[in-house]
Design a protein that fits this description.
Blueprint (H helix, E strand, L loop, with lengths): L12 H26 L27 H28 L6 H16 L8 H13 L9 H6 L21 H14 L3 H26 L4 H12 L2 H9 L4 H14 L11 H17 L4 H11 L3 H22 L1 H6 L24 H21 L8 H16 L9 H7 L7 H16 L13 H29 L4 H9 L2 H14 L1
Helix pairs in contact: 1-2, 1-9, 2-8, 2-18, 3-7, 3-8, 4-6, 4-7, 6-7, 6-11, 7-8, 7-10, 10-11, 10-12, 10-17, 11-12, 11-13, 12-13, 12-16, 15-16, 16-17, 18-19, 20-21
Length: about 525
């Protein structure tokens, strides 16, 4: 990976040390993340048969105590990678400026390497392949389960992972269409189908990378920070590219929709052709994962100033979503609510003694918490990109949902990180990075069987049941504190506290934008 030496008269000795520490940490972490899927079948379950000619490719290596060895290595990669990103952010804040061309080139190389390797860290990509195969055979993945396909003796069905074998698809029709296309190209090889899925993911990841680079090219500090948060973030590369999660496609479509909307004054409205394009892209994101309706809310809020723009944006989104759901019928609609009242094992709600079993109590508590935190974020989050107000709305709502909803997995944070990357630096960066690191650590290695890790079983349980929930709760508390204190930047907190309400809003926004 590219080095991160600080350059320029503003960089001091501390910035240099932080910059080189970031380079070492990020590079080491990414190398481990590439190595793990390169030997996937020696430690991960279920095994996935590779085609005689790749891609994907794998090294046939026998590891001693494979699952324990890989788990320790991946835990180290998560911790070192998060520390590397944190050091890089601190270095940039102190004047360090990494060589952007080298950073982007390294990010693209790492993305390409993970694309041509088998999936690791999650079985979701194999589930995607099964859903695509079901459509290819003329059935609906919202009706037929992987287990039913497995019982037919189908070669892709036989590769279905155990965890979700009896569950229908919970993804939108656009995701199903992509899985269908990959199944057409991949034939009877689950590994080959997954490769085509990961190739789409890689193109989407690089598209966001290039969009961020171009959008922020006039501001070296924000440009460097964006690449640290997105392009060379090992935690993001693991969750999106190594595992092959569809979230990167939704994030790319939603993010580009917000960018295509263009710049507006505080009283202006976007032109209707731009609003139409933004609606089409946001509709695609929603059609992949319905939670990206939060991006659509940002577009609608800006477009509301013009009837033509609002109709164009709404029409573009509906033109994507309505026909696709009509095509798959009511079972696809039911998939929207499939996980709405569930909680992941590392949810902080268990620490608060809130019942985490599916039900209305959990849903009511989480819904109320979302409304409160969303209101705080919408009111107090400064305008980090004032000529693109839709980004603020989408970021505020996304952060609120991610921080309080009980069913969360680390790759879901993609929706916030792509937006946070265009914002100026603030204490919000550390909270988002903390959540991503804690969540990633909890789900590693992801596809192994926990009972095989006899030596690490106690540590793994502590991470799942105590460490990660506590860190998630601490992140939420920190977010509420930021909103109430408005101390988004340490340098501005004392000045803000001494100012009046009107001066606070104006002065903080100016200080925030200046970072």
């Amino acid at each position: 990976m590219a080095r991160l030496p600080p350059a320029g008269p503003a960089a001091d000795l501390t910035a240099k040390i932080l910059g080189w520490s970031a380079a070492a940490g990020i590079t080491t972490s990414i190398l481990i993340i590439i190595a793990a899927p390169a030997v996937r079948n020696s430690w991960s379950r279920p095994r996935i048969g590779l085609p005689s000619t790749g891609p994907p490719w794998e090294f046939a290596v026998r590891l001693p105590m494979p699952l324990t060895t890989v788990t320790l290595a991946l835990w180290a990669a998560a911790i070192i990678g998060a520390a590397g990103v944190a050091a890089g952010l601190a270095a940039v804040a102190r004047g360090a400026r990494p060589p952007i061309r080298a950073v982007t080139a390294g990010a693209i190389v790492a993305t390409a390497a993970l694309t041509v390797l088998p999936p690791a860290g999650s079985t979701d990509a194999i589930d995607y392949a099964v859903y695509g195969r079901i459509v290819l055979l003329g059935r609906s993945p919202y009706v037929m389960t992987p287990q039913q396909l497995r019982l037919t003796g189908d070669p892709i069905g036989l590769a279905a992972p155990h965890q979700w074998r009896n569950h229908v698809s919970v993804y939108g029709p656009a995701a199903t269409a992509q899985q269908w296309a990959a199944a057409e190209l991949g034939g009877s090889s689950a590994a080959r189908i997954v490769f085509w899925l990961k190739l789409c993911d890689g193109l989407a990841f690089v598209a966001v990378l290039l969009a961020l680079d171009r959008l922020l090219r006039s501001d070296p500090a924000r440009r460097a920070r964006a690449h640290l948060l997105w392009s060379v973030n090992p935690l993001l590369l693991w969750g999106l590219m190594a595992a092959g999660h569809i979230d990167v496609l939704a994030a790319a479509a939603g993010f580009l929709g917000l960018i295509v909307l263009g710049e507006q004054s505080r009283t202006g409205a976007p032109q209707w052709p731009r609003a139409l394009a933004a609606g089409l892209l946001a509709g695609t994101a929603m059609d992949l994962k319905i939670t990206y309706i939060l991006f659509g809310a940002g577009i609608a809020w800006v477009a509301r100033r013009s009837r033509a723009a609002l109709c164009a944006a709404a029409g573009g989104a509906l033109a994507v979503v309505v026909p696709s759901y009509l095509g798959f019928g009511l079972p696809a609609v039911r998939a929207l609510l499939a996980r709405s009242d569930k909680a992941t094992i590392e949810s902080f709600y268990r620490l608060l003694r809130v019942p985490i079993k599916p039900g209305t109590v959990l849903l009511a508590v989480a819904g109320l918490a979302f409304i409160v935190v969303a209101a705080l974020m919408l009111r107090h989050l400064p305008d980090g990109f004032p000529r693109r107000p839709a980004i603020k709305i989408a970021l505020a709502l996304s952060i609120a949902w991610l921080f309080v909803w009980p069913y969360q997995l680390p790759w879901y944070d993609t929706m916030a990180i792509c937006l946070l990357a265009v914002y100026p630096a603030s204490r919000l960066d550390w909270l988002v990075l903390l959540r991503l690191a804690a969540g990633t650590l909890a789900v590693m290695p992801g596809t192994g069987r926990l009972r095989e890790m006899v030596v690490l079983l106690g540590t793994a349980k502590a991470i799942h049941l105590i460490v990660t929930p506590a860190l998630m709760l601490a992140a939420l508390a920190g977010l509420v504190w930021l909103c109430l204190s408005r101390a988004w930047n340490s340098s501005s907190s004392s000045a803000v506290a001494a100012a009046g309400p009107a001066q606070q809003a104006t002065g903080l926004a100016q200080t925030y934008r200046g970072r």
